[in-house]
Amino acid sequence: MSTARTAVVTGAARGIGAEVARRLAADGMSVAVVDLDESACRSTVEDIAHAGGTALAVGCDVSDEEAVTAAVERVATELGPPTVLVNNAGIIRDNLLFKMTTADWDAVMDVHLRGAFLMTRACQAHMVQERFGRIVNLSSTSALGNRGQANYSAAKAGMQGLTKTLAIELGRYNVTANAIAPGFIETDMTAATAARVGVDFEQFKEAVARETPVARIGRPADIAHAASFFCSEGAGFVSGQVLYVAGGPRD
Ligand code: NAP
């Protein structure tokens, strides 16, 4: 019989995070739906409740140390020790290097890298105590380099280095850490990218699909499926990996 687990999914009010939260709940986990604004988490929580699962809305800026400590304590008290963590919260502040502001660099580093560091450090205490943990970090194909994304590509490459180090340090406690590097997934984030470059979103999606080996763009469910595998009880010998979920080879 499997043990009931508690999962924390950051940036889960919408997009990929919301789908990952719904999927982990369907897999039988209690899920803390974490996002900047607690009220924005309600629709994900309601979806999970309607499907018969258990979820809690938690407002938290993942780059704020005190807020992260308080959020993880609240999750542990109300749902149980968080032994599954998906560091998904993310933002983009795209611009060509010569136009990129220091504030845009810092904002992206803060949410992706500082946020994942703070969340992981807070949750690993519970994982080590429980002698079980599953950490999944959202990287991106942009980690390989992408025009206009000096900040984001550096952060997403950083997520891969963080993942491998977590795998090495925490493995002895039965804690695994893996990264998912999505290609183009249809969400508000990619809609914003289309708007920034002045291309109609439908045309943008068609153009990406034409260049993708499986001839379609990605959906949040494609990422949720990979996250479900990495978080599963049976994936305990898979650690420190980066899985490109991009409709073709990107490595
Ligand atoms: P999204 O639709 O923009 O959702 C991101 C969520 O993160 C939003 O709900 C956002 O809240 C939240 N968030 C932002 N800053 C936060 C903070 N400091 N603390 C807590 N939550 C915060 O993005 P997505 O497309 O689902 O992307 C999810 C993850 O996948 C990101 O890490 C992204 O970089 C990565 N990814 C996405 C794609 C893609 O094609 N979509 C490809 C590769 C990687 P607000 O709504 O309040 O801002």
Automatic annotation (TrEMBL):
Domain (Ketoreductase) ranges: 5-183
InterPro entries to which the protein is assigned, alphabetical: KR_dom, NAD(P)-bd_dom_sf, Sc_DH/Rdtase_CS, SDR, SDR_fam
Record's keyword annotation contains Hydrolase: no
Presence of keyword Calcium: no
Alphabetically ordered keywords of this record: NADP, Oxidoreductase
Tree of life domain: Bacteria
UniProt-recorded Gene Ontology molecular function terms: oxidoreductase activity
GO BP term, pick one: monocarboxylic acid metabolic process
PANTHER family referenced in this protein's UniProt entry, alphabetically: 3-OXOACYL-(ACYL-CARRIER-PROTEIN) REDUCTASE, 3-OXOACYL-[ACYL-CARRIER-PROTEIN] REDUCTASE FABG
Entry's family note: Belongs to the short-chain dehydrogenases/reductases (SDR) family.
Name of the protein in its database record: 3-oxoacyl-ACP reductase FabG
UniProt source species: Phycicoccus endophyticus
